[in-house]
Amino acid sequence: MRPIIAALLLLISASAMAGNNAGYEMGGQFTRFDPVVGQYNQSGELFRIEGHCQSSCTLFLAIRNVCIDRTATLLFHAGHDRNKNITESATSHLLAAYNGPLRNYVTANHYMDTLAFHSISGADMIQKFGYRACPKS
Fold it and tell me: Fewer Cβ atoms within 10 Å of its own Cβ: the N or the C terminal residue of the chain?
């Protein structure tokens, strides 16, 4: 009986310890996000996108073991430099983090042409673009 309880506690604690976008919700410089993506891709650990995730926060979509909470909201816009000038390289960096269906959608709908935010719900990210739903924690 005790090994079963220990296994359940391990499973629960592993789920609770999964990384998430807390503290990164509002975006920022790529240099803050890219190392996190690399760390989680190297470890293979689960990374959860929950709640609000805008701008560079969407780089977490490049994590191979990412999941999205159905109630999350992701906001997309063109990439830019520190002076808010839209740049092809910054926009390309963001687009490279997205899977094909999402990349095609945000490009075709001009989400990546301006600095205006365009939101997509977590439910749509899962249903329309094929991202994995987060397990219940």
Answer: N
